[in-house]
């Protein structure tokens, strides 16, 4: 074990949504993970996996009505879940910043980019006037926006998707946060622009020493970026490992299934794809057994008897009663 | 248009696109509207689709690939050029003739929810093409057969689109496209709206149907890995024009165009061992506006291999390169020099592999 | 974003439900909505009153049971015999308000139906053909919209002469452009949607595409608008009658006309203004409440 204290320590986080009709939904259920300073952690999952809800819960951005959040989210020594609203607002933006998937809806369409960036600087760093503008221009150029002084005067719709995402990252960086949470930051972007943004995030993490939580459905992004990866399915973590271990030896049938179903650019042509049967909506409720059981090729009878525990193995956590063997490549 | 080489005419070509342009007028004015310019969404494309083959058309958003697909199906009118399908010039058809020809050319859409009428149940969705073309017989039985072909239970017929998951909806869309036993299917981003674990199901289904029904595909996608998997021939599009076209294996083994190189190096591969050792070519900036494309080579404003001559004033045509098969064609003045390493990319555009220091493996507590 | 994930997790549960369509779901939501239920209740109440008027009203609308008791300075208010009091001619105000429901509902419904029919025809033409047809129809609609509604209604009603029909036609005409615009906008939006492109690519003819796909998917907001128009039509009808453009027949009481007749006695007999006024407000409120909630139940944007 390293001696570094975790920067973020999520313990047994659960989020339930009460609905007017129908049963309550456990969007996130007993999720625990840590993020150390300078570390890049990936939360991977498909729609309905709870990865985005997890990040919103950490940021305190879930709506209050109809939502119950349980567990602890320790940042330094503060539990973000019990922090008063104004303290949380201070931490958000100054210590923890977030970048969203859709840069257009995260920016105010009727306010110039410059004003939006300087606003953050004024609020959290108490910069004023020319100093704030100069700092804003520097930030934009730092995230690779050419001609920043002119760009500051422009409105979000005048920027391309990639530039908007850069502007958002600039805003997130304005206060040199110690933790950056990026929720599918490149999903709306083209692949060459995605490469630019990923490269930018890598650089920023290296230069500033900030920690990064990357939320994505794209295993390829995780493979090149994250130190530690947590795979989520239907609200729970099913497998966690360092990225090399995870990709070299996926143990959970879901992780293995995902890897086997994604076409690889470098695979020989005609290599068959092994899709996971069913869809992410064919889930079992965790109380009744493993949520992945209905789609799992390795299913045992015991899998549907009750929720499988998250076991800690050397260098790995795994929630499976019948994992892939360590040599097995993919489930057929 | 340029004369086709004998390589493609020898094949049995089902669909042939020559010099197709789609320019959308930009109008301005308060009372009297005047055309002040045009968005050149597709600007001179030649493409052959051999019978029974799968041609992949890749490019990023705004490159005109979807518009080209729709122009082929006459869902948008090409402003110039010809599309010849099985010997018939589609541009010469109108009204009822065109409508009847649509039987042969079908489309699969990106967003399966949006492409289905929310008020139509599956039975109605799948029998609509049969009704439209006066196909007789037992529609209920045919619908059941179609559902079976795409792997859905017969009970799906009485349900409505919103009751299905994304992957199931896309199966319905595919069933509709094959209902009339068409020869060509244009699939516009058929899997990009689906969950990762579902994409492979739909890709496999498309391949399976091709084998069973002898279909010809034009698959339009931004995901190179998907296209690499499914296509025999791949065409790469940038800002309204094709920059490279080659048999799939040749293209992925030796991409000749700088844009193809950059595109391929940008695709993340789900394997840390590969990711850590890859060299990346990063493109500068964004796609220029198709309303005001750069002169010369469309790509020269972002090209890391740009040369001081020719690139900015002479538009390159697709051509063969010595040492590569006839079918591998590229639109770059300097393809030979780039391949031979005589021209190196700008240093700022190249990201050398830099494996992130691995933290201790016990980092997961 | 978070919500879409929640939707996704609950999708499997929806799959287990029996097949149903969007209208059924909207109906289900509406049945659980208290505001809609109150609105519906108010409307049902007025419809019943209108139908059962002869049974409910103690007097005929033109009977003058209190003729002897009336002087211009003394018009008796509510009493045990006459719940809403007497009017200036000694007629029973309650009976007249009850009978008045017939006129208001009739004018509202007929005017809305005519307006909707006219608007839909124009809207379908414009939305289905687009281009020049669309441009011409929309210019006409723009001209109609540029004239203030009530002013135009007054002009039309005056031109046609004072009668119930002229009120209905006047109100219908001023509502035509509203429906035409609404439907055309909806249809144009649907025309570019993927499922319409899909129908074209399959080779479906234009007519089934317009009537089978575009129109049914455009009509919901029109139904909502019709409900809301009913409310304004009732108010507008009262307004026109108030100005003396409605039926002058004393045997057919009409709320707007009753208000107009009251003007001179407002100081001495405020109840004469109060009861018809309240009737108009409550009837209009019923349709507005139902219409607003109908919109929310049908419009996907309000879902979740």
UniProtKB/TrEMBL annotation, chain B:
A single Gene Ontology biological process assigned to it is: transmembrane transport
What Pfam families does its record include? ABC_tran, oligo_HPY
- Keywords, alphabetical: ATP-binding, Nucleotide-binding, Transport
Keyword set includes ATP-binding: yes
ABC transporter domain spans which residues?
26-264
Q: Which domain of life is it from?
A: Bacteria
| PANTHER family linked | D,D-DIPEPTIDE TRANSPORT ATP-BINDING PROTEIN DDPF-RELATED (PTHR43776:SF7), TRANSPORT ATP-BINDING PROTEIN (PTHR43776)
- Annotated family: Belongs to the ABC transporter superfamily.
This chain's protein is named Dipeptide/oligopeptide/nickel ABC transporter ATP-binding protein
What's the source species for this entry? Jiangella anatolica
The organism's lineage? Bacteria, Bacillati, Actinomycetota, Actinomycetes, Jiangellales
UniProtKB/TrEMBL annotation, chain C:
Biological process per Gene Ontology, one example term: transmembrane transport
The way it spans or sits in the membrane comes to: Multi-pass membrane protein
The organism's superkingdom is given as Bacteria
| GO cellular component terms attached to this protein's record | plasma membrane
InterPro entries xref list: BP-dependent_transpt_permease, MetI-like, MetI-like_sf, OppC_N
Q: Which UniProt keywords apply?
A: Cell membrane, Membrane, Transmembrane, Transmembrane helix, Transport
**Occurrences of domain ABC transmembrane type-1 (ranges):** 101-291
Residue ranges spanning the membrane: these are: 35-57, 105-129, 136-158, 164-183, 222-245, 265-287
Transport: present as a keyword of the record? yes
Q: Where in the cell is it found?
A: Cell membrane
Family membership: Belongs to the binding-protein-dependent transport system permease family.
Matching entries from PANTHER family are given as: D,D-DIPEPTIDE TRANSPORT SYSTEM PERMEASE PROTEIN DDPC-RELATED (PTHR43386:SF1), OLIGOPEPTIDE TRANSPORT SYSTEM PERMEASE PROTEIN APPC (PTHR43386)
Q: What is this protein called?
A: ABC transporter permease
């Amino acid at each position: 074990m390293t001696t570094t204290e975790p920067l973020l320590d999520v313990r047994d986080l659960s989020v339930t949504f009460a609905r007017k009709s129908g049963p309550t939904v456990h969007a996130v259920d007993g999720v625990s993970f840590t993020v150390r300073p300078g570390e890049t952690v990936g939360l991977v999952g498909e729609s309905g996996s709870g990865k985005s809800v997890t990040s919103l819960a950490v940021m305190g951005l879930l709506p209050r009505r109809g939502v119950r959040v349980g567990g602890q989210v320790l940042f330094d020594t503060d539990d973000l879940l019990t922090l008063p609203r104004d303290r949380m607002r201070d931490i958000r933006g100054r210590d923890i910043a977030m970048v969203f998937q859709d840069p257009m809806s995260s920016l105010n369409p009727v306010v110039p980019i410059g004003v939006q960036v300087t606003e953050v600087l004024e609020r959290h760093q108490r910069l004023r006037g020319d100093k704030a503008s100069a700092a804003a221009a520097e930030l934009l150029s730092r995230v690779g926006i050419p001609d920043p002084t002119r760009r500051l005067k422009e409105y979000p719709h005048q920027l391309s998707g990639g530039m908007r995402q850069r502007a958002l990252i600039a805003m997130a960086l304005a206060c040199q946060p110690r933790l950056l949470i990026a929720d599918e930051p490149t999903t709306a972007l083209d692949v060459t622009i995605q490469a630019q943004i990923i490269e930018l995030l890598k650089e920023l993490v290296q230069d500033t020493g900030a920690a990064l939580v990357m939320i994505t459905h794209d295993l390829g992004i995780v493979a090149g970026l994250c130190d530690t990866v947590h795979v989520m399915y239907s609200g729970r973590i099913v497998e966690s490992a360092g990225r090399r271990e995870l990709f070299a030896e996926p143990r959970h049938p879901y992780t293995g299934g995902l890897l086997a179903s994604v076409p690889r650019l470098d695979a020989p042509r005609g290599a068959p794809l092994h899709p996971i049967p069913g869809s992410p909506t064919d889930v079992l409720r965790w109380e009744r057994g493993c949520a992945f059981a209905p789609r799992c090729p390795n299913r045992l009878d015991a899998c549907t008897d009750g929720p499988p525990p998250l076991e800690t193995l050397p260098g790995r956590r795994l929630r499976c009663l019948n994992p892939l063997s360590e040599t097995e490549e993919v489930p057929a | 248009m340029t004369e086709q080489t004998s390589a493609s005419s020898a094949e049995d070509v089902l669909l042939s696109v020559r010099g197709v342009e789609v320019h959308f007028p930009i109008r301005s004015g308060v009372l009297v509207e005047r055309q002040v310019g045009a968005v050149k969404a597709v600007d001179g494309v030649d493409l052959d689709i051999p019978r029974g083959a799968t041609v992949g058309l890749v490019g990023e958003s705004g490159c005109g690939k979807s518009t080209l697909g729709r122009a082929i199906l006459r869902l948008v009118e090409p402003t110039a050029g010809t599309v010849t399908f099985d010997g018939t010039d589609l541009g010469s058809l109108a009204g009822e003739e065109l409508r009847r020809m649509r039987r042969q050319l079908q489309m699969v859409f990106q967003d399966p929810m949006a492409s289905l009428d929310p008020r139509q149940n599956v039975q109605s969705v799948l029998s609509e093409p049969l009704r439209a073309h006066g196909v007789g017989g037992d529609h209920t039985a045919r619908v059941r057969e179609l559902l079976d072909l795409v792997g859905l239970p017969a009970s799906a017929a009485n349900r409505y689109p919103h009751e299905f998951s994304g992957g199931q909806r896309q199966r319905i869309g595919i069933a509709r496209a094959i209902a009339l036993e068409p020869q060509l299917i244009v699939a516009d981003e058929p899997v990009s709206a689906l969950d990762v674990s579902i994409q492979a199901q739909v890709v496999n289904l498309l391949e399976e149907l091709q084998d069973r029904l002898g279909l010809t595909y034009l698959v339009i996608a931004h995901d190179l890995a998907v296209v690499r998997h499914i296509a025999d021939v791949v065409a790469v599009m940038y800002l309204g024009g094709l920059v490279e076209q080659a048999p799939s294996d040749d293209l992925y083994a030796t991409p000749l165009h700088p844009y193809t190189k950059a595109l391929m190096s940008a695709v993340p591969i789900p394997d840390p061992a590969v990711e850590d050792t890859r060299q990346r070519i990063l493109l500068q900036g964004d796609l220029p506006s198709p309303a005001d494309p750069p002169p010369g080579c469309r790509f020269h404003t972002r090209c890391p291999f740009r040369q001081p001559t020719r690139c900015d004033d002479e538009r390159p045509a697709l051509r063969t390169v010595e040492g590569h098969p006839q079918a591998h064609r590229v639109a770059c003045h300097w393809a030979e020099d780039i391949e031979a390493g005589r021209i190196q990319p700008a240093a700022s555009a190249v990201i050398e592999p830099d494996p992130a220091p691995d933290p201790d493996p016990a980092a997961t507590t | 974003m978070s919500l879409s994930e929640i939707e996704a997790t609950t999708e499997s549960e929806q799959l287990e439900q029996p097949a149903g369509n969007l209208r059924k779901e909207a109906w289900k939501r509406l049945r659980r909505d208290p505001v809609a239920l109150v609105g519906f209740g108010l409307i049902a109440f007025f419809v019943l009153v209108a139908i059962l008027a002869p049974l409910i009203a103690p007097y005929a609308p033109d009977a003058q049971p209190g003729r002897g008791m009336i002087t211009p300075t003394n018009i008796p208010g509510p009493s045990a015999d006459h719940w809403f009091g007497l009017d200036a001619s000694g007629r029973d105000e309650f009976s007249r308000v009850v009978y008045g429901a017939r006129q208001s509902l009739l004018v509202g419904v007929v005017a809305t139906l005519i307006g909707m029919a006219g608007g839909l025809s124009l809207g379908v033409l414009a939305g289905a053909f687009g281009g020049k047809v669309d441009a011409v129809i929309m210019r006409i609609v723009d001209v109609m919209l540029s004239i203030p509604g009530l002013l135009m209604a007054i002009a039309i009603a005056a031109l046609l002469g004072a009668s119930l029909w002229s009120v209905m036609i006047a109100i219908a005409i001023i509502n035509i452009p509203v429906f035409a615009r609404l439907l055309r906008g909806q249809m144009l939006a649907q025309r570019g949607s993927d499922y319409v492109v899909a129908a074209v690519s399959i080779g479906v003819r234009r007519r089934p595409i317009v009537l089978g796909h575009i129109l049914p998917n455009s009509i919901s907001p029109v139904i909502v608008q019709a409900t809301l128009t009913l409310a304004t039509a009732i108010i507008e009808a009262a307004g026109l009658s108030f100005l003396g453009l409605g039926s002058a027949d004393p045997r057919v009481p009409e709320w707007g006309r009753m208000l107009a007749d009251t003007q001179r006695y407002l100081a001495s007999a405020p109840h004469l203004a109060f009861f018809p006024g309240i009737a108009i407000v409550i009837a209009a409120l019923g349709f507005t409440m139902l219409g607003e909630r109908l919109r929310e139940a049908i419009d996907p944007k309000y879902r979740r």
